[in-house]
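Folding Task

Wanted — backbone structure
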Amino acid sequence: MKPRTRARSLALQALYEIDLAGHALEDVLAARIEDYDLEDTLEDFASRLVRGVYPIRKELDGYIAEHAPEWPIDQVSIIDRNLIRMAVWEFAISQQTPVKVAINEAVELAKRYGSDSSSRFVNGVLGSLAERRNEISQALGQPHVTENKD
């Protein structure tokens, strides 16, 4: 697994534990970082990802629900939901990751950690949400996404 993919995997596991068990973000993040052997820059990336997604989960879930109307948000698997949240945070909020890269990484992690249909579901929802990245960015208080980031 590539180093940044491992960092995303750490973030996914942390967000999963927070959602499933309700453990405190800082405790979970510290434990997951201890479990992984990542360079400092990758630990920072994973930490920013978790800390970026966590406070806006409900807002991100609203966007997910709009693009997966056949699946009430509480019926979307915790893995899928967090992969979508992470990718949207990366391309619409942090704006440090090109849309295609964020989607591809989420799909690869869905293949690894999700169900048989997770990768298709994650890809489909993210494809729709990518078209709304400027709207999402503005709604969540971030500057306009430049079009040349693809």
Notes: Helices lie at 3-21, 25-35, 40-53, 57-67, 78-94, 99-113, 118-130, 133-139. The chain is about 70% helix and 0% strand. The first helix runs from residue 3 to 21.
